[in-house]
Design a protein that fits this description.
By secondary structure, the protein is an alpha+beta fold. Helices cover 20% and strands 35% of the residues.
Length: 484
């Protein structure tokens, strides 16, 4: 089944999002030969989707543990292999992704593989991967292993998670290349080359999955006549638009006749390339308002639209701000405003930036622009609040503000409130502590946090789980948040 481009983009970001609640794992399964056929199963556990717990009370180290069950059945549904393992993350001060590699010997044939992952720190969170695998009979005179696509490569043998042929690597995550992946690295082994008398070559290229039309010029490399020569190469894929593709690796002779061949599907999400193709030669773009902007102006204008950009594009926009690609910045900004206007993108842009500059001045803090502060961000995202309660002199708490919106069309809610507090007392350094707005920070212990410096305001229940503090004449935040 071929995904549409919009579905592909959504799926890609769902895969990499650390906000996903259920455990998520990137799986790659490949067939090789060494004294008999075997498979390799690479698993990347997405750390942000698992529960990390403290290693001990004495330090700040965290770790995660996953139970990994492998069941492989033949075509008659007979179990050929069933094994269970515990996979532990390295101890870390932060949540991280971690890898596992398993190798299993199997006879050539077709199998149904089922992999189950269970978060041992939160056992209701599981992940199930099913895949039909075909293990080649490597006894053929000349045959390739499966192709391994690589996410990262280093010539230092122990720098990355795994090693092969004097380099270290990590497999491509979810078989997907993101906006920053402009190089395709691949690895494969060739068996039987030492028995071939003629000159043979690796030929490799990319086809569009739906049309089978080649999208890159083929690369060639002469194959040495050793026992198991490897194919380890890379080439540019920067110009590939977002979509589904197939990587093709062939062994050919001088006449380019195919002797053996392997394919590997993958997806690409390259929004900047999409924009470049969309607007290439577009006279409206070439004479648009973005063309007069230098890098500093582009970065300022891109930062100002963060509150309006969907969460799925935040990482892309952040990378774009830090990049040196001026054209990509212009494409993104132009596309953003033309899709939000009816032929008057410059007018809509100017009106928004007038507000953004005013917000920048009003909420400017020690670091960054005013619209990058929590208050500035919410102002640009939801507009001016209908009411505002400012508390500067409550002895039990740092300065705080409560913003009140009678109705928010974005969430279809009434009585929406945001509570910001200035815990560090630096000018304009107000942080969002709590909100009842859908999709924004909701902190059940906000009251305990607000009054934590007041030793006479203990939590009204257990100090670790309590959500409110004892009522008092100088502790008004709860009343303000509830009554207005």
């Amino acid at each position: 089944m071929i995904m549409t481009r919009s579905v592909l983009i959504i799926a890609f970001f769902l895969c990499i999002s650390s906000c996903i609640k259920a455990i998520d794992v990137s799986v790659s399964c490949l067939g090789y030969y060494q004294d008999g056929p075997y498979i390799e199963i690479y698993s990347r556990i997405i750390g942000g989707t698992t529960q990390f717990l403290s290693v001990s009370e004495e330090d700040s180290l965290l770790n995660s543990s996953v139970e990994f069950l492998v069941v492989i059945k033949d075509e008659r549904n007979q179990i050929k292999l069933a094994e269970k393992y515990q996979v532990n993350s390295p101890e870390s001060i932060r949540v991280i992704d971690y890898w596992d590699l398993r190798r299993f010997r199997l006879d050539p044939g077709i199998y149904n593989m089922e992999l189950q992952y269970v978060d041992l720190n939160q056992t209701q969170d599981t992940f199930l991967h099913r895949e039909k695998i075909r293990l080649t009979d490597f006894a053929e005179p000349l045959v390739l292993s499966d192709v391994l696509l690589l996410n990262e490569v280093s010539m230092e043998s122990n720098k990355l998670a795994f090693s092969k042929a004097s380099f270290s690597f990590e497999p491509l995550i979810f078989e997907s290349f993101g906006p920053d992946n402009n190089q395709l690295y691949f690895f494969a082994e060739l068996y039987g080359a030492d028995g071939v008398e003629q000159d043979i070559y690796y030929m490799y290229y990319v086809m569009e999955a739906s049309t089978l039309i080649p999208k890159t010029q083929p690369g060639f490399k002469k194959i040495s006549k050793t026992k198991n020569p490897v194919a380890f190469e890379n080439f540019e894929i920067e110009n590939l638009e977002s979509g589904n593709y197939t990587f093709v690796l062939e062994v050919v002779n001088k006449e380019k006749a195919t002797l053996t061949r392997r394919e590997r599907p993958f997806t690409v999400y390259h929004p900047y390339t999409d924009y470049a193709v969309q607007y290439n030669g577009d006279s409206k773009f070439e004479t648009s308002f973005v063309q007069t902007m230098d890098d500093g102006e582009l970065n300022y204008n891109l930062k100002a639209i963060f509150p309006l950009v969907p969460n799925t594009q935040n990482a892309i926009l952040n990378d774009l701000v830090w990049s040196d690609n001026i054209d990509a910045k212009k494409y993104f900004l132009y596309n953003f405003w033309t899709t939000r206007s009816q032929g008057n993108a410059k007018e809509v842009f100017d009106k928004y930036m007038e507000v953004a500059r005013a917000v920048d001045r009003k909420f400017t803090a020690t670091l960054g622009h005013g619209f990058e502060t929590d208050r500035g961000y919410m102002f640009l995202k939801y507009g001016r609040p209908d009411d505002l309660i400012e508390v500067l002199d409550e002895p039990s708490a740092p300065p705080y503000e409560i913003w009140i919106y009678n109705h928010l069309p974005e969430t279809n809610q009434t009585g929406v409130k945001f509570l910001f507090y200035n815990i560090g007392l630096a000018p304009n350094d107000y942080r969002l502590l709590h909100s009842n707005c859908r999709g924004e920070l909701q902190n059940p212990r906000w009251e305990v946090e607000l009054y934590k410096a007041d030793r006479f305001a203990p939590a009204d229940s257990d100090h670790l789980t309590g959500t409110t503090v004892n009522d008092a004449i100088n502790r008004n935040a709860r009343r303000y948040f509830s009554d207005n």
